[in-house]
Structure formats: structure tokens, C-alpha cells
Design brief:
By secondary structure, the protein is of the alpha+beta class. Helices cover 35% and strands 22% of the residues. The longest helix is centred in the C-terminal third of the chain and has 14 residues, at 88-101.
């Protein structure tokens, strides 16, 4: 029997993503200001991942962690994650929090 896709709400996706911890900083990605513009339409979640620099070495790890968290809600949901670079103010805030929560 094939399981029907249940409708996943934006709030459920945001909650799931809020549990994703940064692998090197003792904060979750949302708390670090790295998650922006979450939306859910039909059976697809769209998330913008803000990075201090687009070529950070852990970019794919972060994307996979977010995707896995959302897929736990419903395996059939499509997850589209777009990486974008933080603006200067977002970078400053991120760097301040990174220093405070660094676990390396």
C-alpha cells in the first residue's frame, strides 16, 4: 500500500528546520539567521539558506541536514533549498554568534 502524502504546513516545516543545529556552532540554523523565506506549496517546501559566503565548505552538509529534517515530516515532500549570501548586517550578526557559540 502506497502512503498518501499528507499536507505539510509551513509552520511544521519551520519547526522541523528550527531543530537543525549548525555542526560547528552551538546554535540552530534559524537562530543564526541562516533560514529565510520558508514556503510550502502543494507538496514542495522551499527554503532559502543564507550563508556568510556562498562557497562555505559545509554548504552541502547544511542543505542535506535541512532536507532530512523536512523529509521526516513526510518522505514524499519535495524540498527545494536555495543558497544565498548574507548581507553585511546578517554576516556581522552571524559572526558575533559564531564566536560566542563556536564548538569547532
Amino acid at each position: 500500500m502506497k502512503k498518501e502524502a499528507k499536507s505539510v504546513s509551513k509552520k511544521a516545516v519551520e519547526k522541523a528546520v528550527a531543530k537543525v543545529m549548525h555542526p560547528e556552532i552551538d546554535y540552530n540554523l534559524a537562530g543564526l539567521g541562516m533560514i529565510k523565506n520558508t514556503s510550502v506549496k502543494e507538496n514542495q517546501a522551499n527554503i532559502v539558506l543564507l550563508l556568510p559566503f556562498l562557497d562555505v565548505p559545509i554548504k552541502e552538509d547544511l542543505i542535506n541536514s535541512i532536507r532530512q529534517a523536512v523529509k521526516k515530516l513526510d518522505k514524499s515532500i519535495k524540498v527545494k533549498i536555495e543558497a544565498a549570501e548574507m548581507n553585511e548586517k546578517e554576516k556581522e550578526n552571524f559572526m558575533r554568534m559564531a564566536k560566542k557559540g563556536w564548538i569547532g
